């Protein structure tokens, strides 16, 4: 078992690190303060392949393993978790289209998405269907050569500013087996968007509700087959959970790096804070939790890449652990900065606000525990 990254993987990570320092670092605080969605910066990420890291090559993606994608996302999230998190969601939606779309739809949208010239949103959550996503009520009815969509979605990242909606809607009866997935142009007649939500964090990406009123799309925009939508959505979320866990690891690394610098620079009682053993112990615990979270995320990514039978469970475990640990490291780093950590001149308060939502989305951490416990209690799992 080799825990060392290859030369190529280290090069990917360094490229992402350099990009984030050049394109995100000078602007991240302003994007957050002014709620700016930095589409130009995202397009520049697309020029490096970062908008289609694990998307299939047939649509212009790099087709990389999830582990390699995680390395890139972590480096960018260390500077700007909010913008990076949107890029990961775009990657997830783009992968879903590239994997299940018809050739014609894939050809029309694929390279536009993998290049970052156009952006995608993932549309599963509804006002009445959050953790219980299988009970969603948005309907898509086949009428001749078209599907007609009615309903609404909530908490959709990028909504109102993206070009394609990867939508889960009900085509059959109740339950998960009645759900199908679709590629829906974001400007299709009958689509309307709610106000931009005012959020605690993730301010560099807009969040809105979406309403569908007799929205017509070609039948060929179905992803996969009717009734496969929930399975497709969950397949997307396996990778999405690794992505969000990785964003937490990245945010925590950025916070830890800031805390290390601050402990050397800040003097109290005539000596640097770094000389106080209590603070040394705190820093050691933060680093240990961070490294453990990173390795768990990479293990889950490896399981997903290998098609392991319990990959979904490992993804849930990694998402739960890394997002909790990542938030705690960010919060502890803020505490180490004292009052300065609470000021917007320092990145800590932004990292804390951005990392907090990772414990909620892509399946709450309570739902992650349900997934893990259910698998363990089945008796046939090989989780170890």
Strand content: 5-15%
Gyration radius from CA atoms, angstroms: 21 Å
What's the shape?
globular
Total domains: 3
Looking at the structure, the CATH topology of the largest domain is Butyryl-CoA Dehydrogenase, subunit A, domain 3
**Overall average residue pLDDT:** 97
- In the CATH hierarchy, the architecture of the largest domain is Up-down Bundle
- Please give the number of β-strands: 10
At a glance:
This protein is α+β, with helices and mostly antiparallel strands and 384 residues long. The protein is built from 11 helices and 10 strands.
Please give a structural write-up.
- Helix 5 packs antiparallel against helix 7, helix 7 runs antiparallel to helix 10 and helix 9 packs antiparallel against helix 11.
- The two termini are 15 Å apart.
- This protein has 384 residues and is of the alpha+beta class.
